[in-house]
């Protein structure tokens, strides 16, 4: 056991309980995520346990954090025959919806955002995976990596790959974030290069 409050070789940081924090390439476990949230305000609001209670689960899990989706959605539609172009994004491509659930049409797509606001520490990368409750229904959730130094609400891409309408539940779990600490900061962080999605709030559309 290492001495609490010290640094060991290889840029290890030792927590107050004597456990290793900040090991190079380390996947953070529950107690470490809790400590990073306390130390860096890494995500807010923070639920310290996995909440089920009849909901699609959210909160702290063994080696990740299950995020929630809010009640605001942008659902893609072909009513106005708009072309989806990431360089010249046309708002005619979607309609805005708000409510306790969102029904995504067959073979369609929606944008939403996380309840949680993230502040990524300079050495930490977040990777996101969809929850199995939705994946087993043919609903695919995609979120790009949470880069070191980035902060904001996550814009969540939700695809309904089925030939049937698909229902999403607001303020319930939508995906899980895994946190990896590289043990050292990159030369240039997302904040340093003033990334175009820095500090985003609400559902953020494509930018060039």
Word description of this protein:
- With 208 residues, the protein is mainly beta.
- The protein has a domain at 48-179: Deoxyuridine triphosphatase (dUTPase) (Deoxyuridine 5'-Triphosphate Nucleotidohydrolase, Chain A).
- The chain contains two helices and 17 strands.
- Strands 4, 6, 7, 8, 13 and 17 form a six-stranded antiparallel sheet that branches. Strands 5, 9, 10, 12, 14 and 15 form a six-stranded antiparallel sheet that branches.
- The longest helix is centred in the first third of the chain and has 11 residues, at 30-40.
- The radius of gyration is 19 Å and the shape is globular.
Feature tags:
17 strands, six-stranded antiparallel β-sheet, 7% helix, 208 residues, mainly beta, Deoxyuridine 5'-Triphosphate Nucleotidohydrolase, Chain A
Helix content: under 10%
Quick one: how many beta strands?
A: 17
| Largest sheet, strands/sense/barrel | 6 strands, antiparallel
Q: Output the number of helix runs.
A: 2
The N- to C-terminal Cα distance equals 49 Å
Low-confidence stretches: 1-11
CATH class of the domain at 48-179: Mainly Beta
The 3D shape can be described as globular
Report the radius of gyration as a whole number of Å.
Answer: 19 Å
Protein structure class: mainly beta
Q: Can you say what the CATH homologous superfamily of the domain at 48-179 is? A: Deoxyuridine triphosphatase (dUTPase)
Could you tell me the CATH topology label of the domain at 48-179: Deoxyuridine 5'-Triphosphate Nucleotidohydrolase, Chain A
Spell the H/E element sequence.
EEEEHEEEEEEEEEHEEEE
CATH architecture of the domain at 48-179: Distorted Sandwich
What's the average pLDDT?
Answer: 87
> What percent of residues are in strands?
35-45%
